[in-house]
Design goal:
about 400 residues; alpha+beta; Jelly Rolls; Arc Repressor Mutant, subunit A; 6-stranded antiparallel beta sheet; 5-stranded antiparallel beta sheet; rod-shaped
């Protein structure tokens, strides 16, 4: 999550810097940037989720089975029962390669609580359960309906503590998922050890000492049963991560749309003054007189706000404000708009010798300046514009 937040913040910083340069970028370039950023973002998200997903599961079944083959292990997998007498419940643990194991048992018929189980010590492999949220199992049984699954935890006391969950067997179902956070220590353990729950610190799931499976609690005494486990995987719940990542990606895509495509931006239209045959209208409305004056004089390469100020007796800032309010463009932008519109008209008619000549006709003082402004407004060079006719 830290990496994802860092990447998102970095992208936003980059976007803020890019936004400062977009005012001089044409619509074709903006669309190109939109698709570039969108594709890079989606590719990054897919790579991020792929890496997270690949690291979200841990198959521990081969590890616990192969404990018996380790050199000088502290303990090896085995079985246990309610006591060590001859009349105790029977238990047999059988391995089939490193892919599955079977536990065969029969509970004692004598009075009292009879049970048996199989255990796998983890001191030699140190599996950190705290990094995961679920335990996925594949189990096949004959008669069992409720199988206890235990994790032995370190509680910094002399007593041996465990937390438990149950595999509730359903007909026709072999795959089960146990939530690690739902494991708990049975009340009977506290009573048997004469310890209050408040005296036990929070279990450290990073230091699980052993895992064990017990005989079915609902099975009658004397009945022989067997279950086989062929899958035991620790997994992370990535649903929240996926939701946050998808939401963040959609948010970034929305930012891209606003930044590059102008989504939600109020659409404005530039006031277009016919510039081929304009009569200088002595209107009482100042803005009409200003736009008409510019329509008549846009071909003057030296035309500036000072000329308008001399003509209408107004300050440069006031004239700029009036023109911007009417045309939605600044004075230089509107002047370039008029010149480019006329240049497009001339280029379409073909009434010219060279592209440079057209630039001079409409008021640009150099061919390079004409080509640069034309490309910025239209998206392509004058030559390509002519070729597309």
């Amino acid at each position: 999550m830290f990496i994802l937040n860092f990447v998102l913040k970095l992208k936003l910083i980059v976007l803020l810097r890019i936004r400062m340069k977009l005012k001089s970028t044409n619509s074709h370039q903006k669309k190109g940037l939109f698709w570039t950023f969108s594709i890079c973002t989606i590719a990054s998200v897919i790579l991020f989720l792929t890496i997270k997903t690949s690291n979200s599961t841990y198959n521990i079944l081969p590890l616990i089975i192969n404990i018996q083959h380790l050199e000088k292990p502290k303990r090896t997998p085995g079985t246990f029962a309610e006591d060590f007498t001859q009349n105790a419940s029977k238990a047999f643990l059988t391995f089939k390669g490193d892919s599955l194991f079977s536990f065969k048992y029969s509970k004692s018929e004598r009075e009292g609580h009879a049970f048996s189980g199989c255990f796998f010590p983890l001191e030699n492999i140190q599996i950190d359960f705290s990094k995961y949220d679920e335990i996925e199992l594949e189990i096949k049984t004959n008669f069992a309906r409720r199988i206890p699954f235990n994790l032995s935890v370190q509680n910094r006391r002399e007593t041996h503590q465990y937390i438990r969950n149950f595999i509730e067997i359903e007909t026709g179902k072999t795959n089960y998922i146990l939530q690690i956070k739902e494991f708990y220590t049975p009340t009977s353990w506290y009573e048997r050890n004469n310890i209050a729950q408040i005296e036990i610190p929070q279990q450290d799931l990073a230091k699980i000492e052993a895992i064990s499976f017990e005989s079915c609690q609902l099975l009658k005494n004397g009945v022989e049963d067997e279950f086989t486990i062929s899958r035991l995987i620790l997994s992370k719940d990535l649903s929240v991560l996926f939701q946050v990542t998808i939401f963040s990606t959609l948010f970034l895509e929305l930012v891209y749309c606003v930044l590059f495509l102008g989504l939600f931006r109020k659409k404005t239209e530039v006031v277009h003054i016919p510039i081929t045959s304009v009569e200088y209208n002595k209107s009482e409305i100042l803005v009409d007189r200003i736009t008409a004056f510019m329509a008549e004089n846009y071909t003057n390469p030296d035309l500036g706000l000072n000329d308008l100020s001399s003509e209408f007796g107004k300050g440069n800032s006031e004239l700029s404000r009036i023109l911007k309010k009417e045309t939605k463009l600044s004075f230089p932008k509107y002047l370039s708009y008029l010149r480019i519109e006329e240049a497009k008209s001339i280029l379409q008619k073909g009434d010219f010798n060279t592209v440079s000549e057209v630039g001079y006709i409409v008021g640009f003082n150099s061919p390079s300046n004409f080509i640069r402004v034309f490309k910025g407004e239209v998206g392509i060079s004058p030559k390509k514009f002519v070729d597309q006719k």
